[in-house]
Amino acid sequence: MYADTTTQGLTPRRRWAALVVLSIAVLVLAVDNTVLYLAVPSLTADLSPTATEILWIGDVYSLALAGLLVVMGSLADRIGRKRLLLVGAAAFGAASLFAALSTSPAMLIAARLLLGVAGATLMPSTLSLIRTVFTDPAERARAVAAWAAAASGGAAVGPLVGGALLEHFSWGSVFLINVPIMVVLIVAGVWLLPESRDPAPGPFDLVSALLSMAAIVPVVWAVKHTVTAGIDVAGVAALAAGLALGALFVRRQRRLTVPLIDVSLFARPAFAGSVFAGFMAVFALIGTLFFFSQYLQLVRGFSPLQAGLGELPTTLSAVAVVAVVGRFSRVLGLGRAIAVSLGLVTGGLVAVAVAEGFTSYLWLALALVPLGLGVGLTQTLTTDAVVSSVPPRKAGAASAISETVLELGVAMGVAVLGSVVSLIYRDRLTLPAGLDPAARAAVTDSLAAGTNALDPASPVLDGARASFTVAMQTTSLIAAAVTLAAAIVAWRTIPATAGTVAEDAPSRPVTHRGGARRG
């Protein structure tokens, strides 16, 4: 039986105080996904990374999160979710300090990797603790909405935080700010959070843990490599290896008495459809925001703070979702509500593509509203559907799958859409024959590098800005097409309700996390 008595008997005040702590944890993780975007021009001037290194600085954090969430979720079941969260918070603060002090691109990539590893210890505890702390469905729905608002709002508010810091401090400040926040989280967590663990987690399967990581990394690398270098033997081999390892992982999970991931959860339409919809929304948003912050600074000439404020409509509309999501879902039903939310994302991306060609920022601000609203609604609805569509004993597995897919969406969004931006930018770039070789190499590598190498009034740089704008517009339209397809899938496959269950029917054989079966 998946049960836990340590969270029983909590007062309402302590439950909601615990939610604040959990929301702070996911807020910091979400902010760290996007806070670095505004810092790219300044860290480029300081560390001189290549375009490929910039991409790795951006997505290695999410890649590490995606690869380790399932493993850390299983570890949390064994040692306690509160304990792992507090240990992870301390590690996250230390890794943030390491990142702030980086003196080379390789050192910063390593620091971002460590941040991802530490973040993976935090994430599984947040949603699964909410599932156990809030046993009342109505309370849990509100708690999940607040959790999702922290996640989506944090991703959107990251550029604003980065802009405010970069206005007065160096790029390392976007990492250094994490240290005092983690100290507050640890102190509050020790006092407010209850301990929660699986009383009978079963044996830990190291082979499955290695397979889960080995399947994700080569697939993401193959996508990045193919988009930037074209189809070649290395890219095809990495993709094939990742897919083959993924198939082995799924096959092993089906055979294990105590699987690392319960793949039978995907037989539930509400669960599978919601996970897919959440992935697509995050893929589109993060992939677009990664280069949008650079667009505001390098093309429109915004300062870091102005660029952060320029993305504020996304933040405000994402947070405003908390006030409307309940009625929105009741009126439309779950499947249609998620489909309409993805439709808002699609419309927002198309509007962004159009507005990027206008001189006035006002049109961009208006375009960001449906984008933020749609992503916020999608993430809230899909997260609540995932948590509610499984019995309590599967809450940990469901949380791990949901969070892994979302973080994979972040990594894939940066890798795919970021690489598409670079590819189109270079394809549209036209450089004069007499340009200095060093300047040619810099502007060809990236607009950020070209801006540092050329005079701001250079006609070559004007052409590079125009090429980057076209690349942004095209990529936004590609992301819009992806989210439109996801909206159609959600409309047709996700039922009106999540099908909340307390436990599986006794007549249906299921695998328990503790290793026993019942018929």
Helix/strand layout:
Elements: H1 12-34, H2 40-47, H3 51-79, H4 81-100, H5 105-133, H6 137-166, H7 173-176, H8 178-192, H9 206-229, H10 233-255, H11 269-298, H12 304-310, H13 312-319, H14 321-332, H15 334-355, H16 361-388, H17 395-428, H18 437-445, H19 447-453, H20 459-493, E1 510-511, E2 517-518
Helix pairs in contact: 1-5, 1-6, 1-8, 3-4, 3-5, 3-9, 3-17, 4-5, 4-8, 5-6, 5-17, 6-12, 6-13, 6-14, 6-16, 9-10, 9-17, 11-15, 11-16, 11-17, 11-20, 13-16, 14-15, 14-16, 15-16, 15-20, 17-20, 18-19
Which structural class fits the helix and strand makeup? Answer: mainly alpha
Q: Mean of residue pLDDT?
A: 80
Major pleated sheet: 2 strands, antiparallel
Order of helices and strands: HHHHHHHHHHHHHHHHHHHHEE
Assembly context of the chains? single chain
Helix amount = over 70%
Tell me the fraction of residues in β-strands, as a range.
under 5%
Shape descriptor: globular
Number of helices: 20
Tell me the span between the first and last alpha carbons: 14 Å
